[in-house]
Amino acid sequence: MLRFIVRRMLQAVLALFVLSVLLFAWLRSLPGGVVSALLGERGTPESAAALRAALGLDQPLPVQYWRFLQRALEGDFGISNGVYRGQPALDVFTQRFPATIELSIFAMVLALTFAIPLGYLAARRRGGVFDTGSIVFSLVGVAVPVFFLAYVLKYIFAVQLGWLPPSGRQDVTINATHITNFYVLDGLITREWDAAWDAFKHLILPGIALSSIPFAIIFRITRAAVIDVMDEDYVRTARAKGLRQQTIRVRHIMRNALIPVVTIIGLQIGALLAGAVLTEKVFAFTGIGQALALGFELRDYPVLQVLIMMAALIYIIVNLIVDVTYAIIDPRVRT
Amino acid sequence: MTDTHDTSSTTTGDDTGHGRRRSALAALGDRKKERIDSLAEAGSLSSAEGVSLWQSAWRRLRRDPVFLVGLGIVTVFVLIAAIAPWLAPHDPAARLLIGQVSPATPIPPAQEGFPLGGDNAGRDTLSRLLVGSRQTLIVGVMATLGGLAGGMVLGTIAGGIGGWADSLVMRIVDVMLSIPSLLMAFSIAALFARPSQWTVIAAIAIIQVPIFARLLRGSMISQRHSDHVLAARALGVRPAAIVFRHMLPNSLGPVIVQGTLVLAVSIIDAAALSFLGLGSQDDSVPEWGQMLGRAQVFFNSYPHVAVYPALCIIVVALGFTLMGESLREALDPKSRR
């Protein structure tokens, strides 16, 4: 067990190292070179020379990499030249991160609530109309570009019907107190119920659009896992013992079938982050996804650098946690 | 994460007693890596009844409505792409309706000779969609082939040579798999000062490399101890020839399955890149993803401008996905019982 955890952690450290090298290489191959990329339009010959010296671009590559690593560890990623012009790039991450977490959690909960029961039902009626129907539905879901789905939802429910807000995180007329920057949570803490409700309404449409990404995969994994588990000897034994159907379903089938689902949640974090770039842009939802979209548009490389690094970092750490939890639940993977 | 690529070689040739224990673990197979590995194994097993893998797969596919629908969509799509210039009623680059474009009415409506209307540059939408199928097909195919080529080089080195080369290549591949792939495509595309169709293809191809590499390596490792490779080795066939003539052709099945699925994803990802402004800036040659990405500004007032290219992308991506998924099912020995 301990060996597994140690080895898994070493793998994560290695992944982080390779990642930092890739990011370093990425920065160095930016169009116009790293100095003009980091300075943007504000660059003057003097500031360019100063930055060149500060970055140590006259030094050998390994030294440059070491400096890059040091500055990254100190949280110095340069100054934003587009998204939050003139502010430290790291601020974009710290201020906007809660929004994306809020949205991602909501989307994930939505996907799990619908995909797991659907996957279970499809597996029970394997080969039937319901099964085939839900499989085709999930495949169509994969084929629809997520930003197009977001626009369609926005057009129908916000623009045409006016049921839900079309953009933003909270109505500007609401003067809410923000403690954590998780707007729904803030509203609950401060007991400003209308602020919490309004923030929640802003989550619904982008949440549904974003949930389409993990939905299809969770549905298919649940279905495949339930089918596999239903054939297992222990399920037959449980049946032979005369256990109630309900007990077999909950204790024997679902409990075992959910193990792979738990794992996939970790992997889906990455897809959610990438999907958030597209969804948040459509709904002008001010999270790190929208900042990334803006960063790509305005070529704000300091911001892109910090956001990409953080996204990959979160992804690696979440998967490390999932794998370790997973090894605790299921002894078979501890090899 | 367990070291699955080392266990994959031992589970392959085993009898059903072992296979049963594996099936519970195979449920986890849809974790990205393991899913690739199980696919790699699937293609290299031969059936017990003396019917070849492809024959038995074809027998099942012939009667599979899902596969036939997918095949139908893909066939029609490729046909349209092939004869698009002759099908299109107008030149897709000609600004025939430019007289009707004004700040108040940026999108010319449907009219005689222009059943789907025009775009904001006065060009015929139907012609652009028809001709756009060609670029879309090119983007999908080239990105997939690019990913396959890169993956084949890495996978062959890892699976063919083994040892330290294997460990080194697979560590790199695993790290690449550990970065959210679409985010990586965005970052690669952002490296080009002047984005074009080819930078889009390159960005999408690169994110497919680790997937194909892992797939081919897994397939080769599972063949390493199979009879035809042992026979070739006993006959004194050179190692390089064994890899290229005996192992690679046998890995074709899983590669085709993955390729069909990747084609669908590539077309969708190309649209996402265009949506973020990372796609080709030159729109004289239409492409669906670009048309969809650029329609974003008109969505709330003229949704049809986005809906037409989006429907084309959805139908074609669905066609490739249906084909790929039913192929996978047909080639999977587990589901053949």
In words, what does this structure look like?
Chain A has 335 residues and is mainly alpha-helical. Chain A folds into two domains: 2-73, no CATH class; 89-333, MetI-like (MetI-like fold, Orthogonal Bundle), CATH 1.10.3720. In chain A, 76% of the residues lie in helices and 0% in strands. Chain A is built from 13 helices and no strands. In chain A, helix 5 (89-124) packs antiparallel against helix 6 and helix 5 (89-124) crosses helix 9. The radius of gyration of chain A is 24 Å and the shape is globular. The model of chain A has no long low-confidence stretch (mean pLDDT 82). Chain B is elongated, with a radius of gyration of 23 Å. Chain B folds into two domains: 7-51, no CATH class; 66-335, MetI-like fold. In chain B, helix 8 (181-189) packs across helix 9 (197-223) and helix 12 (252-275) runs parallel beside helix 13. Chain B has 14 helices and no strands. The two termini of chain B are 30 Å apart. Chain B is 68% helix and 0% strand. The longest helix of chain B has 37 residues, at 125-161. With 337 residues, chain B is mainly alpha-helical. Chain B has helices spanning 4-12, 16-26, 32-44, 53-62, 65-87, 125-161, 163-177, 181-189, 197-223, 227-234, 239-247, 252-275, 288-294, 304-331. At the A-B interface, helix 1, helix 6, helix 7, helix 9 and helix 11 of A face helix 2, helix 7, helix 8, helix 12 and helix 14 of B.
